[in-house]
Amino acid sequence: MAKALSFEPPDNLLPAVLGWVVVWFDGGWTADWWDSLGAAVTAAALLFLLPHRSSDRAPGDDHSR
What we know:
Blueprint lengths: L13 H12 L7 H23 L10
Helix pairs in contact: 1-2
């Protein structure tokens, strides 16, 4: 029997989501300082998440199952 696929969202995805909320709050990308702030929050959150997500895995766990 096939194993059901499961999705595990990142633990700290909230800052990245909030960054894009800031970008789109004023009606889309208008290249003003508000959008730059949202893009910076999103980029910082994603840069923080990427290295930490790979270290959360158990040794030998390649998530290929």
